[in-house]
Write a structure and sequence with these properties.
alpha/beta; Rossmann fold; four-stranded antiparallel beta sheet; 10 strands; 65% helix
Length: 566
């Protein structure tokens, strides 16, 4: 439990903790009101059953005389009306408290989802590529939502604990022997329930998380490869995998929902049994009817009536926390990721990019790049060639500032590239990857990609990429919808939009990471010719497999076994 609370407080902000402390304080006040609500019944029933008690009890006699009552019945009616108003106010206060509980618990979803998304975007590139995007989506969509349920259950559990404590105080004051016996019975049964039902619910929670993870992975991989899946006609095997994950997730929730009702049903039966036991105990001990002890029995019945739901909610809250505990573990771990603390101190590129004995490895003692030294001058057209896996893309990622060398350094005009200036450096780079991802939206949105849309500049880069005329004559110009993944466009058209995206903002360096490898030779030759024309005033770095792609380059370097050769 200590570790659980440590993780919980770690993901809460300072404001959240203060809000939580306020809710705990309010819950104490609400619990005191609940205690008064239960305790006030006994004096009222005593007065209502025997008017003479009004004058034998000092505080009721004082009230009777202070308000100048002349009839005992009027006094009892007045006390009843006051109690009625008290219970109405109590109900409103409880409603306000439940609103604050909901505001805190449900309001955390937005904050947790935002912080998770912010953390994921702030990851360094190497950490991101080691993560599964389905897991990231699941954490933002589901695990953050589950945390709101966990928060709600935790707060309600705390609130009900205070209620139980104060009601117990009244019952101990009335008859400590009966209350002690009740306590032993309730605690014994609570331990029994937590050792059986709670453990089963915790296992169901682990099963839920595992099957839900698989559930997201199958959906993402299937929809992301829809064309290939249709061509291979293997939908049944995918459906079988989906059915297994989906049914496993459903069964985990079914077990949780079913077991969650068991404590309530058990405690209700126990509560009725305890009431009967009290009556039997009094009749047996005093060998008389219960008329003399009816007010006290009424308070015990009322106390149990309020106590049993509280005990049930405490157990239910505890079980809910166990069921969603894995959500806390996931969110805590993902929020603890170190994010890049980068700055955009201006950096000038007027002369050269210098790599000085750069060494890089993914796995220890398995170098991908081994003491690479390279100088790229402003305006150069540089090609990198080599076998797949030789480290070309890794070298590019180091040049553009996504990876950091394990050893050696990279400098721009003699100024080392570091956390202070790396954002400014990245802003000078236009990047065209091998795999082009266009999100569902307009051409304008895809080209701007989060930047402000300036129509004239946007049309200019589309014109440079030689696709604006096509869009305006056959579609809706820059507002043409591309479909998810750019499915409404051909491969060449997607490539041209990617070129326009890279050119938007007028970068000083253009990087092509096997950007045309998926195109046919004729289309590739045409696009590369256009790129060379466009980059007359830019530095161009090209990774390619086909030698025809790099015919316009001034310098060609080959990567082989981690070494760079001219």
């Amino acid at each position: 439990m200590t570790l659980f609370m440590t993780k919980l407080f770690a993901i809460l902000t300072h404001h959240d903790r203060r809000f939580l402390a306020l809710l705990v304080a309010i819950s104490v006040v609400i619990s005191l009101i609940e205690m008064v609500g239960v305790g006030a019944i006994l004096p009222f029933l005593t007065l209502a059953s025997d008017f003479s008690k009004i004058h034998t009890l000092s505080y009721t006699d004082f009230l009777y005389r202070f308000f100048h009552f002349t009839h005992e019945s009027h006094f009892v009616v007045a006390i009843g009306v006051v109690l009625l108003l008290f219970y109405l106010v109590r109900a409103l206060l409880n409603l306000g408290y439940f609103y604050l509980l909901a505001k805190f618990s449900k309001g955390r979803y937005h904050l947790l989802a935002y912080r998770l998304f912010e953390n994921y975007l702030g990851m360094d590139y190497r950490s991101f590529v080691n993560k599964n995007s389905a897991d990231l989506s699941k954490a933002i969509i589901n695990e953050a939502q589950n945390m709101t349920t966990l928060f709600s259950s935790l707060l309600l559990t705390f609130s009900e604990i205070f209620v139980v404590i104060f009601i117990y105080a009244i019952m101990i004051y009335l008859n400590w022997k009966i209350t002690l016996l009740l306590s032993i019975i309730l605690i014994t049964n609570a331990i029994l329930l937590t050792m059986t039902v709670s453990k089963a619910i915790q296992k169901a929670g682990i099963s839920r998380e595992e099957h839900q993870k698989k559930f997201f992975e199958i959906i993402q991989s299937s929809l992301g490869n829809f064309k290939l899946m249709k061509l291979r006609s293997n939908t049944q095997s995918i459906l079988d995998q989906f059915a297994n994950a989906s049914s496993g997730y459903a069964h985990a929730n079914i077990r949780n929902e079913t077991l969650a009702h068991l404590p309530r049903l058990f405690l209700e039966a126990l509560g009725f049994g305890i009431v009967l036991f009290i009556v039997i105990y009094i009749v047996y001990k005093y060998q008389t009817d219960i008329s003399q002890t009816l007010p006290m029995i009424s308070v015990f019945i009322l106390g149990l009536y309020r106590l049993m739901p509280s005990a049930n909610r405490i157990l239910h809250g505890y079980n809910t926390i166990l069921f969603y505990k894995s959500s806390l573990d996931i969110i805590h771990n993902d929020l603890m990721y170190d994010v890049e603390n980068l700055h955009d101190t201006p950096i000038v590129f007027n002369h050269s990019i210098t790599l000085d004995h750069v060494y890089f490895e993914y796995d220890e003692n398995k170098p991908i790049l081994d003491t690479i030294s390279l100088m790229i001058f402003k305006g150069d057209r540089v090609a990198l060639i080599g076998e797949s896996g030789s480290g070309k893309s890794t070298l590019i990622d180091i040049i553009i500032g996504l990876y950091r060398p394990k050893k050696g350094k990279i400098s721009i005009d003699g100024l080392p590239l570091n956390d202070n200036n790396i954002q400014a450096w990245r802003s000078k780079i236009g990047y065209i990857p091998q795999s082009i991802y266009l999100f569902e939206g307009s051409v304008a949105q895809n080209v701007a990609f989060g930047k402000a849309i300036e129509e004239e500049q946007l049309k200019e880069v589309l014109r440079q990429a030689n696709i604006l005329a096509f869009l305006e004559s056959h579609h809706e110009g820059i507002y043409t919808q591309v479909g998810e993944g750019g499915i409404k466009l051909s491969g060449g058209q997607r490539q041209r939009i990617a070129i326009a995206r890279a050119l938007y903002g007028d970068p000083e360096i253009l990087v092509l990471d096997e950007a045309t490898s998926a195109l046919d030779s004729e289309t590739e030759a045409k696009i590369m010719e256009e790129i060379y024309t466009l980059c007359a005033d830019k530095t161009l770095i090209v990774i390619a497999h086909r030698l025809s792609t790099i015919e316009g380059c001034d310098k060609v370097y080959r990567l082989q076994e981690g070494k760079l050769y001219v």
